[in-house]
Amino acid sequence: MTELRRLGASDLKIAPLVLGGNVFGWTADRDASFAVLDAFVEGGGTMIDTADVYSAWVPGHSGGESETMIGEWLRTSGKRDRVQIATKVGMLPGEGGEKLAPARIAAACDASLRRLGTDRIDLYFAHQDDDAQSQDAVAEAFATLVKAGKVRVLGASNYHAARLKSAIDTARAAGLPHYQVLQPEYNLLSRMKFEGELQDYCVVENIGVVPYYGLASGFLTGKYRSAEDLGKSVRGGRMRDLLEGKGAAMLAALDRVAAETGATLAQISLAWLIAQPGVTAPIASATSAKQLEELLPAMTLTLSDDQRARLTDAGT
């Protein structure tokens, strides 16, 4: 039985791994998506993360494809009450404007609910900051959704420390619901955006953290070890900088820990994240049930202090 973790100070309790939904309807078709979702739940997973903008970057897509796929699975599987759904607003323009315009937040939430085929979003993120809007107006727009029962918990993604603190202080001062969760980019090779002031603030304020790119778009699985490997997926182009930077040293460190533990590089990378101060659960995606089943043991893998320190040092 997977031990659930409380997500910050919210009333949500989640498994220590969140399933990323960015691939659903993109690199995972209906059958593959459903298989991954079923395997995740059967393996003890609880939270599924998506966004209204997934996968608008694909030619012929307009955004909402991932939510629609998850909605179909919820309807056909009957598993809505076994999972928590997290989605986001702020990157896909549409009815009501763009980013975090209050009218856009309201319209986007209703559109997400329709695509997901559900009456509530368990965790609703501002996908990015929007300095064109007053933080008071943004807080009021999100509070309206919470009051209406459409949203349970609020979160922020891609916020800097000062703006996250300001947004939370603004909501608190007005007696409104505030962001209780942060979704930053964070992994063994990408640490500057979270570690330091932002991480410290989340720890002190008990902000639950669910990092994305937990496997650095697949690099930390060991799939990309040479220039010849870069053509293995649509994400291969992103890997060259990692390979030419600290990536090779990190893979070597991961290989040593893998030899000691018998765990895979992906499991070790996620277990390192799960053990970091403030982190509740990293996000990882999979395009097949087999791939997903390899990730699940990360939820119960405990690395020694020495192993975690060596991995940390390899990325410093």
Question: What does this protein look like?
Answer:
With 316 residues, the chain is α/β, with parallel strands linked by helices. The chain is 40% helix and 12% strand. The strands form two sheets. An eight-stranded parallel sheet has the order 9-8-7-6-5-4-3-10, with helices on one face. The chain is globular, with a radius of gyration of 19 Å. The chain starts with a strand and ends with a helix. The mean pLDDT is 96.
Concise description?
This protein has 316 residues and is of the alpha/beta class. The protein contains 10 helices and 10 strands.
Fill in the keyword field for this structure.
two-stranded antiparallel sheet, 316 residues, 10 helices, eight-stranded parallel β-sheet, alpha/beta, 10 strands
Query: Uncertain spans, ≥5 residues at pLDDT below 50?
Result: none
Give the mean pLDDT: 96
| Helix count, DSSP H or I runs of 4 or more residues | 10
Fraction of residues in H or I helices: 25-40%
C-alpha-based Rg, rounded: 19 Å
Gross geometry: globular
Structural class: alpha/beta
Strand content: 5-15%
Would you count the extended β strands for me? 10
Tell me the layout of helices and strands.
Blueprint: E1 5-6, E2 13-14, E3 18-20, H1 30-42, E4 47-49, H2 65-77, E5 84-89, H3 102-116, E6 121-126, H4 135-147, E7 151-157, H5 161-173, E8 179-183, H6 197-205, E9 208-209, H7 239-261, H8 265-274, E10 283-284, H9 289-295, H10 305-314
Parallel strand pairs: 3-4, 3-10, 4-5, 5-6, 6-7, 7-8, 8-9
Antiparallel strand pairs: 1-2
